[in-house]
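I have been asked to look over a protein record a colleague put together. Alongside the sequence sits a line of tokens, each denoting a local backbone shape. Please read both lines and tell me whether the tokens look consistent with the sequence. I do not need a full report, just your reasoning and any doubts. I have pasted the whole thing underneath without changing anything.
>
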Amino acid sequence: MNADPDVMRHFPHPLTRAESDAMVERIHAHFDRHGWGFWAVEERDGAAFIGAVGLSHIPWQARFTPAVEIGWRIAGAFQRRGHGVEAARLALRFGFERLSLAEIVAFTIPANEPSWRLMEKLGMAPDGSFDHPRLPEGHPMRPHRLYRLRRPGSSARP
């Protein structure tokens, strides 16, 4: 999935096997440290890997950090079938109910309309833009859109 150019079209590049393995190791390390993170998403019968959806502490600084983000990556064959929104709603519920987070953020590049449409479907509100600090000046994917969702009944920022 991480090597699929279509799935990775809104990222700087498809991942090599080594980069993908390193990403999985970072997910495992986050689980080891916090007890939660990005979960594998599978079909109900467990026959097919659909993708990954979950929550993560943002490891870099921006105007909205420290923060916990929600994110997703869905394999091409399973996109636009409701799996992402279903899994994302469960991840948000976990973050608000089990972790008692006051707010969860999400972000993507402006061209990634499917992703920011999903953010809006989840009830997330746009909060301007920012330049992703891990991409160099002038990189076409450096500008990102930021979305926020506060826990129901929460008015305070985290």
Notes: The mean pLDDT is 92. DSSP finds three helices and six strands in the chain. The domain at 36-150 is CATH 3.40.630.30 (Aminopeptidase). Residues 71 and 152 are 20 Å apart (CA to CA).
